[in-house]
Amino acid sequence: MKRYEVIESKCWRHTSGRAASIYGACPWLCDAERPEWSLEVRGFTIRDNLTNTVGLGRVPWSTREQAQAFADKHNA
Fold this sequence. Notes:
Blueprint: E1 4-14, E2 19-21, E3 37-48, E4 53-54, H1 64-75
């Protein structure tokens, strides 16, 4: 298994435009608020399979090819 893997970068997006991490707490407070939230793909990021972390502390790449180039370079 390679250390770095390319995955989609996703977030929860509220109808008001607010965003929340998919890795944190549930962003809605009750079942009635659930329809106001949807998953949004923001680009591509890296999952580190050695440390089980996601992301690099930077804005996600806009294309899979850009993220894959980073992964290929650091997996070599």
